[in-house]
Structures are given as C-alpha cells and as structure tokens.
Amino acid sequence: MKGFDLFVKLVVFAAIVILLGLLGYAVFGNKVFSKSSPLIGHEAPEFTLELFSGDKLRLSDLRGKAVLLNFWASWCMPCRDEASALEASWKRYKDKPVVFVGIDVWDDKDGALAYIKQFGGGYMNGIDPKGEIAVDYGVGGVPETYFINTSGKIVDKYTGPLTEEMIDQFLGKALSSLPLSGLTKEGG
Amino acid sequence: MIIKVRIGMVFYIMASVAFILGLLISNSIADDIDKETREISYLLMCPVCEGQTVAESNSQLAKQMRTIIREKLQEGKSKDEIIAYFVSRYGEAILGAPPAKGVNWILWTLPALSLLVGGLIIGLFLYKLKEDREKSKKESRKPPTQFEPEYIEKLNKELREFES
User: Fold this and answer.
1) Measured between CB atoms, which of A12, A26, A135 is closest to B107?
2) Quick count: other Cβ atoms within 10 Å of Cβ A122?
3) ipTM of the complex as predicted
4) What is the pTM of this model?
C-alpha cells in the first residue's frame, strides 16, 4: 500500500505540474497579439487613406520607397512619447526614399487635429474612421508601427513608443534592398 | 374599361405580393447575417480586451470588427474565409479556441485524458482499499494457530480454578 500511495502522489503531482504548465501556456503563450504579426514578410495590405489635408493617399503610389506606417490616437499617452522622435526622424529622412505616414485610429477628427498642432507631425497624416485599415494590418493597440520595404513588403512591426535609434534601425532594414549610397543619414 | 381595371388590379395585387415577398426575404437574409455575425464574433477574441470575445466586447475595435464581419458576409464570404482573414491579420491568438493541430492537440485531449487517468487512479485506489479490507476481515475470522505460552498457562490456570 505504501508503494501504491507514493505512485498516486507522484501521478497527482505530475498532473498538477502539467496542468499548471498548460494553463501558463494558454494564458501567456500564444495570446500575445502585439509582439509579432503574421503579415511580416508579406505584401502590405493596400489602402486609401483620407489625409487631414483633404487629399487621398494610396499605399501603392508609394512603391519604390520605404514606408513607416504609424498608427496613433490623440488620447494615447505613449503616442505623445514617440511624437518628437517621429518628427525628428521624418526631418532627417526627408530627402531619402522614405515616407512617413500617420494613421489616426479610434479617434475623432478634432482631437486628432489638435494633437497634430501640439505634437507635430509634418509628415502625411490621415484618419481611418471605420478602423478598416487598422484591422487589415492587425492593429491591436496604439502606438503601433509597421515598416514596409521598397518592394511593398512588411519587414517589421513595433508595438509601443519608438525612439530615433529604433526608427533608424527599422528603416535601415526596410531600405536594405537599396544601394548603400541611398542610405546615408543626415545628422544621424 | 372593365378589362383595363381588372388588369390594373391584377398588376397591383402581383406587385403587392412581390413587395411583401421581397420584404420577407430581405428580412430573413438580414436575420441570417445577424445570426452569422454573432456566431463568428463569438469565435474571435477581442485583441484589446482581456478574455472577451469580439461579440462580448464593447471596445471600439470589437465594434469595428463586427462591422467588418457583417460587410464580409454581405459580400458573400463564408464563415471559414472570414475567420481565415482575421487569423491572417492577428495570428492564431485571435481564435477563441486553439485549432486542433500541433501542440494544441494536448489542450484538446487533456480533459478526456485527465478524466481517464483520474478515474483509473480512483478505481485502483478503491480496488486496493476493498482488497485490504477483505484481507483484514479474513484474518480476523481465522482461529489463532498459536498462542503465547504465558496465555496458555493463564488459560489453563483459570480453567483449573473454574473446575475446582
């Protein structure tokens, strides 16, 4: 009976360990939406964005240039943290084959315009009123930034506020298909 | 004149019937789309809410996702195509239940396996308990084969005293 008791105890202990492990996997394992994207390595979904300037921007018109696609909202505090880095980077990359595009999501137009006035954003910015572009890119929060290479493929996704160094790193990768002479940064 | 009136009435009745039928059919299609939208929404997790499906969440993203599901159904997309679309954008984490493949098989088989192993352990334990009880019962019924000499002596002494 003693040996049997030990066996039962071991089995119960092993079962508890396995169950806790599986529970941990179920809770933390594949439920992280933001760390990666199934779109990486694939063609960036096409969209037409209504710019605040009144113009319309089609992603396919930017082919041949690297694109930094930043999803933001005026109520989002981490977006404010990265605003200055985005603005400064945009100024540095202005003359390079790089386009910065801001997409305002889950927001109202007035709030967004006030945000742009306060925090900058000289680059192209528009609103996605129905959230169609956001869902098409698998956006699960703001700020979220996608980096599209010159061939129109998504090479990286970053969730959270970006710094200038990070932008340089991601854009370096997005531009890597271009000749090195086109990659020299100003003031970097 | 009477014929014209009759023809007019027939057309009027036919148009009314067609209108009512059209209304009924469109309502039924709308009901089907509503039902399917709800069904699909329950299968997808809301990416910005903890533990809530797209159907349960009131977040703006969940609302927009429900609208997108409805629009895709209206375009004629099937349930599987819509789910595949969301998986292609958000990954398998968007699914309420993990697909039964790879490591996920463990998750699908574990409940049944736990019941089986648990049942087996309880069964073995009860069997062992029953066996031990029967063994101890049998042993208690058996006449003692050998007594300690001091007890025999004590018993003989008491018997002698009783007889005398």
Assistant:
1) A26
2) 12
3) 0.77
4) 0.68
